[in-house]
């Protein structure tokens, strides 16, 4: 692997752009590739076998592109695929993501933590293990959020329909006394401005994008693979509608970009 090779970042859709932004902020010299599996979104209600198969195709594509590292910028795909992908590519720096239970358990003052995530993430054995490990001293209220990802995919971050749905999902958490809410899906950080208006000001929101960028920096640093020069423009692919992704990129990403079709 060479230092100026790109880093592959993957999500079921546009959610991983929230992670891509953190990576670009921390590692501005890195060239980035982004694949959205928009033709198969949402992952939240799909089987782990299906998501693993899709993740393997994306991993193979990033290898073909010469990517020096792979970031699964999706909590749902991480629980379904990270262990197998690590076995498939033992020497490839690979970063997955999981809901930030440990920092949330440390941050809560009420002792009640809420988790907003997909059904797939919340039902996984990996998430149960995370709670066993880090949440023994706090109460955790989990809330699956079907429908939210689909709205965010359209570029909707603040419509009446979205506000209604989100209100339904956060209300039980607030009623239960949560003062710390984990955004356990990479799509949800885009709703932070809306959540900040909706929630009591004492509630803290925690997501893992920045931690993932730091972990990536650590892994590349250990292998002396951090880039130092001028990066190439970020390249985007989607298995869904390329025109649609191109149109919403300026809203969810820092700029417009070239979007190609991914038919893996
Ligand atoms: N963005 C993904 C996550 O972090 C999942 C969205 C989906 O349901 O496809 O879990």
UniProtKB/TrEMBL annotation:
Protein name in the entry? Glutamate racemase
Could you tell me what reaction this enzyme catalyses? L-glutamate = D-glutamate
Which InterPro entries does the UniProt record give? Asp/Glu/hydantoin_racemase, Asp/Glu_race, Asp/Glu_racemase_AS_1, Asp/Glu_racemase_AS_2, Glu_race
Q: Which family is this sequence assigned to?
A: Belongs to the aspartate/glutamate racemases family.
**UniProt binding sites for substrate:** 11-12, 43-44, 75-76, 186-187
What organism is recorded for this protein? Pseudomonas spelaei
Q: Which domain of life is it from?
A: Bacteria
Swiss-Prot/TrEMBL keywords: Cell shape, Cell wall biogenesis/degradation, Isomerase, Peptidoglycan synthesis
Q: Answer yes or no on keyword Cell wall biogenesis/degradation.
A: yes
The pathway this protein participates in, as annotated, is: Cell wall biogenesis; peptidoglycan biosynthesis
Whether Cell wall biogenesis/degradation counts among this entry's keywords is yes
Q: What is its EC number?
A: 5.1.1.3
Q: Enumerate the active-site residues.
A: 74, 185
Q: Name one GO molecular function term.
A: glutamate racemase activity
Biological role stated in the UniProt entry: Provides the (R)-glutamate required for cell wall biosynthesis.
Q: Name one GO biological process term.
A: cell wall organization
């Amino acid at each position: 692997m060479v230092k100026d090779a790109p880093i592959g970042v993957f999500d079921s859709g546009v959610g991983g752009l929230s992670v891509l932004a953190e990576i670009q902020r921390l590692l501005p010299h890195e060239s980035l590739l982004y694949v959205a599996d928009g033709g198969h979104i949402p992952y939240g209600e799909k089987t782990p076998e299906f998501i693993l198969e899709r993740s393997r195709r994306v991993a193979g594509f990033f290898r073909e592109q010469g990517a020096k590292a792979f970031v699964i910028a999706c909590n749902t795909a991480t629980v379904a695929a990270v262990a197998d992908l690590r076995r498939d590519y033992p020497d490839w720096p690979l970063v997955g993501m999981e809901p930030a239970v440990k920092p949330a358990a440390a941050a809560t003052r009420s002792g009640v933590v809420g988790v907003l995530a997909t059904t797939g993430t919340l039902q996984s054995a990996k998430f149960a293990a995370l709670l066993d490990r880090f949440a023994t001293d706090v109460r955790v209220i989990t809330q699956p959020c079907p429908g939210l990802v689909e709205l965010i995919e359209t570029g909707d971050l603040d419509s009446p329909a979205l506000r209604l749905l989100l209100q339904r999902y956060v209300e039980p958490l607030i009623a239960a006394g949560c003062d710390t809410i984990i955004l356990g899906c990479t799509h949800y950080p885009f709703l932070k401005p809306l959540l900040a208006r909706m929630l009591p000001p004492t509630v803290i929101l925690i997501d893992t994008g920045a931690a993932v960028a730091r972990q990536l920096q650590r892994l590349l640093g250990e292998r002396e693979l951090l880039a130092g020069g001028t990066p190439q423009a970020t390249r985007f692919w989607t298995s869904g509608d390329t025109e649609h992704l191109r149109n919403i990129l300026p809203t969810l990403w820092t700029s417009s970009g070239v979007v190609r079709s991914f038919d893996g």
